Amino acid sequence: MDTKLSPELLSLLEVQSAPFVLIDEQYQIVGANQAYCENYGISQQEIVGKHCYEVSHRSDVPCHQHGEDCPHQAVFSTAKQHEVIHTHFDRHHRPEYARIKGHPIMGEVGVRYLGELIVPIANPDELNCDEMRMVGHSPAFLHCVEMLARVAESEASVLLLGESGVGKELAAQYLHKRSSRHDKPFVAINCAAITETMFEDELFGHERGAFTGCIGRKQGLFELAHGGTLFLDEAGEIPLTMQAKLLRVLESGEYRRMGGTETLTADVRIVAATNRNLLDMAETGQYRLDLYYRIAGIDLRLPSLRERRIDIPALAETMLKRITEAGAPRCKLTDRALDKLMAYDFPGNVRELRNILLRAVAICNNSVIDAEQIVLGSSLNNAPQIDASPVLPNSGTVQEMQKVVAGIPITQLEADYIAELLKIHHGHRRNVADILGMSERTLYRKLKQYGLS
């Protein structure tokens, strides 16, 4: 600890339970409490004299030179408190998202310091699932992470808004992990994937004999999620006939299994997500307004990828690492490939980026992904589907014959491509279906069509 600091400043450091540091006008640390030193893995004797940016950002230059909102710059230029969200690196060089509260602190003989209080928001591992991870340092992304961290502490229902592919299920999982219910179940349902006739059975379950062919009791998702979080993805697709029943259980906390007489209690936190405007749907009678207000206790919009383009390089690197962990060869993007990604609008957002990279990994040469392997848009998905066994006509024009014959090599190319993808991904059909931009069911039909396994 810097003994030149006044007793008042020394006391200010030690009364802070969260990491706290004093920084002079030249970005040099003049004092830090034990929590700050432990967080960044430097002793109190070693930390004095180091630049703040080399400790927390692991950088050689101040953060404003990287385009970030710098609390040091703001506090010393305005003499006012300034608060930002930054990506810092802990003692193990792992990134963590933190809220930085900068305060002007006056020392002896008019010397001004920056007092920084560090409030950790999230470890990126919490923004993670088997296939994707929420990564970034753009202002839009960091603001979103901060809001998620604040909302997670509440018991209120949450409605996640945003375009398709922005990572709403990842956000829902993060809300659960950071909540008081983190040690209880997280149960998800895609409302668009359930037929209207099966919706009640999925949510509430059934008793034996509830309907023809029913031979046993089934627990519904409310029962499975008891004590935890129930995630209603694509909440705008809930059938109108089911909305009243869903509203009733959300209001009373009580429900019955289909065919049952026992009243059960549902202790769940609802997190819903949609890319539709539910208020507009309510005005046209497609959605119950009272249900909207029940699930939208707090609404939170997730930014699109084009709103945070500067996150694309870090996202792409993280996704490529995840893809190669699944058995594909380790690949690297060239500058030309990265420039092509940065210039694209990504209507499918993060999910589309992942699919583009999966496809690029499959077709690149020598584990290097260049611009030619970055296939944007739906050009591959729109390729014509041609029968594997075309029948040659007995009569017709030369042009008709040429069209049919041309289908044979195109079909063979598709079969070879699918076979190669299956080999690379060790027969993992879901990964291959994602690359091809089709459902697993469609892929299964093609496997049968081409005699692949």
TrEMBL record:
<keyword id="KW-0547">Nucleotide-binding</keyword>
<dbReference type="GO" id="GO:0006355">
    <property type="term" value="P:regulation of DNA-templated transcription"/>
</dbReference>
<dbReference type="InterPro" id="IPR025944">
    <property type="entry name" value="Sigma_54_int_dom_CS"/>
</dbReference>
<dbReference type="Pfam" id="PF00158">
    <property type="entry name" value="Sigma54_activat"/>
</dbReference>
<keyword id="KW-0067">ATP-binding</keyword>
<dbReference type="InterPro" id="IPR003593">
    <property type="entry name" value="AAA+_ATPase"/>
</dbReference>
<dbReference type="GO" id="GO:0005524">
    <property type="term" value="F:ATP binding"/>
</dbReference>
<keyword id="KW-0805">Transcription regulation</keyword>
<dbReference type="Pfam" id="PF02954">
    <property type="entry name" value="HTH_8"/>
</dbReference>
<dbReference type="InterPro" id="IPR002078">
    <property type="entry name" value="Sigma_54_int"/>
</dbReference>
<dbReference type="InterPro" id="IPR035965">
    <property type="entry name" value="PAS-like_dom_sf"/>
</dbReference>
<dbReference type="Pfam" id="PF08448">
    <property type="entry name" value="PAS_4"/>
</dbReference>
<dbReference type="InterPro" id="IPR002197">
    <property type="entry name" value="HTH_Fis"/>
</dbReference>
<feature type="domain" description="Sigma-54 factor interaction">
    <location>
        <begin position="134"/>
        <end position="362"/>
    </location>
</feature>
<dbReference type="GO" id="GO:0043565">
    <property type="term" value="F:sequence-specific DNA binding"/>
</dbReference>
<dbReference type="InterPro" id="IPR058031">
    <property type="entry name" value="AAA_lid_NorR"/>
</dbReference>
<protein>
    <submittedName>
        <fullName>Transcriptional regulator</fullName>
    </submittedName>
</protein>
<feature type="domain" description="PAS">
    <location>
        <begin position="5"/>
        <end position="60"/>
    </location>
</feature>
<dbReference type="InterPro" id="IPR000014">
    <property type="entry name" value="PAS"/>
</dbReference>
<dbReference type="InterPro" id="IPR009057">
    <property type="entry name" value="Homeodomain-like_sf"/>
</dbReference>
<dbReference type="Pfam" id="PF25601">
    <property type="entry name" value="AAA_lid_14"/>
</dbReference>
<dbReference type="InterPro" id="IPR027417">
    <property type="entry name" value="P-loop_NTPase"/>
</dbReference>
<dbReference type="InterPro" id="IPR013656">
    <property type="entry name" value="PAS_4"/>
</dbReference>
<keyword id="KW-0804">Transcription</keyword>
